[in-house]
Amino acid sequence: MSSLDGELTPLELRTPNFRLRSLTVEDVGEKYVSWLCDPDVVKWLNARFRSHTRDSIRQYVAGHDNRDSYHLGIFAAGAEHIGNFSVYIDRVHEVAQINVMIGDKKWWGRGVVLECRRAVIDWLFRDEGVYKIFGTPFVNNAAAVFNYKKQGFKLEGVWRAHRKISETERWDVAQFALFRDDWLSKEPAAR
Fold first, then answer.
1. How far apart are CA 159 and CA 152, in angstroms?
2. C-alpha closest to that of 17 among 150, 112, 85, 117
3. How many whole angstroms separate alpha carbon 124 and alpha carbon 72?
4. What is the C-alpha to C-alpha distance for residues 21 and 42, in angstroms, rounded to an integer?
């Protein structure tokens, strides 16, 4: 989203239970750092191969331009930061990749991803003109695979031994995709 003076403005999306907004470096606190240092939280993320400090995370957050890349915090009622969505838009090809992390474990398994991703999908298809949205979870990440399928994403393929899970083991990665026409043709209650 652009403002009238050409500056890119932060994004904000709302769902019945959550608010998503562009993160700033001021949002990076010890809680965020603790998520990225928790082996359970980063088990399925590339973040597990790096050390994380407040400064390194601030650099990562600052690297999102709110035009082609967005880093959205997920906030529960009371402004509690519980996780993040990262969105990368390829404007030439009209495709977007989305990634999610629920850092606060008390919110795991409570439908946060589906509710918040619904808002991200609507925004990408309706406001950003994206044709296709995709995600690339490990095939072993049962929760992610379940959520993609539940939301109507279709398996496009599997990349064999595509990413390391440890220094000695590699796992397959799936690509799930959702097309604009398929999403918009659904009744809103079915999304």
1. 20
2. 112
3. 13
4. 22
Cα 144 off chain centre by = 11
Could you tell me the pTM of the whole model?
Answer: 0.89
- Percent of the chain surpassing pLDDT 70: 91
Q: Which ranges in the chain belong to alpha helices (H)? A: 30-36, 39-42, 54-62, 112-126, 142-150, 180-184
Q: CA 15 to CA 153: how far, in whole Å? A: 20
Instruction: Produce one character per residue of 32-61: b if its CB has 16 or more CB atoms within 10 Å, e if not.
Output: bbebbeeeebbebbebbeeebeeeebbebb
Sheet holding 12-14, edge to edge: 12-14, 19-22, 69-76, 80-90, 95-102, 132-135, 170-179, 154-164
What tokens appear for 140 in the block? 């072993």
Mean pLDDT, the chain, rounded, equals: 90
